[in-house]
Each structure stands twice: as structure tokens, then as C-alpha cells.
């Protein structure tokens, strides 16, 4: 197994516009449309990148840097919400992103707490019912 075995993540959503606003507000970034797999090789992504009952928006990423890229996905017949996997987003100070969650329409599930020598984390719930983690060393 690789030292960092996770290479991609997908967060499933029901309302892409609402989810986009939440994540762009909390993380102060811009999500970009991503073409559906069958479309990617043949033509550029549509403005809202919806095809075949699937919409995808990727988080900013650098494929040559360490860490994991990922995206929001709206797909017919796939539900959002708790499903047993928790994705943690790296932050300088997770209290900063946590402070934006409620204004963006989410909920703070567990405010920033210490995890010993591994830093701090907070657990928040997005507008689609997905629980995500925020992690920082301070």
C-alpha cells in the first residue's frame, strides 16, 4: 500500500448549486466543472457539466502536489448523507473554516477539538447531510 493510499474522493449531493455555495463559502475557493468520464476524452465540459444524470464540480487541485483531489457529484439514484466514510479537509486553523459553516447553511456537529500530537479537528455537516472533517495542526 502507498504511504498516502487515498488518491481521490467524491462527496455526493442532491442540490449542486446549494452544495457549491456551501463549499465555496466555507473554503473560500472556486469549484470548477469537470466533464463526465465518457465526455472527457472527446470534448470540453459543458458550462454546468451535467450529462447523463450526472453533475461534477472539482475542488482546486494540483495533480503534481502531494495530497488528494476530489469533487462534488450529483448523480441520479445516488443519495447524499452519512455513509460511513469521513473526508477530512486540511486547514491552517480549522476554527476559521468552522466559523463559516452555519452562515453557509451547514451545521457544526463537533466544534474544534484537540487530537493530541496530531493537531486539531472539527466535524461539520454540509447542506446535503454529509459529515466532513476539518483538520489543522494549530
Account of the 3D structure:
With 138 residues, this protein is of the alpha+beta class. It has one domain (8-136): 2,3-Dihydroxybiphenyl 1,2-Dioxygenase, domain 1 (Roll). It contains three helices and nine strands, in the order E-H-E-H-E-E-E-E-H-E-E-E. The protein has helices at residues 16-27, 37-40, 94-101; strands spanning 8-12, 32-33, 50-51, 54-58, 69-75, 88-90, 107-114, 120-125, 131-136. The strands form two sheets. Strands 1, 2, 3, 4 and 5 form a five-stranded mixed β-sheet that branches. A hairpin with a 5-residue loop joins strand 8 and strand 9. Helix 1 runs antiparallel to helix 3 (94-101). The chain is globular, with a radius of gyration of 15 Å. The model is unreliable at 45-50 (pLDDT under 50).
Instruction: Kindly provide the name of the CATH class.
Output: Alpha Beta
Number of domains: 1
Q: What's the helix count?
A: 3
CATH topology: 2,3-Dihydroxybiphenyl 1,2-Dioxygenase, domain 1
Radius of gyration: 15 Å
Globally, the shape reads globular
Percent of residues in helices = 10-25%
Short description:
By secondary structure, the chain is of the alpha+beta class. 17% of the residues lie in helices and 32% in strands.
Key structural traits:
alpha+beta, 2,3-Dihydroxybiphenyl 1,2-Dioxygenase, domain 1, five-stranded mixed β-sheet, 32% strand, globular
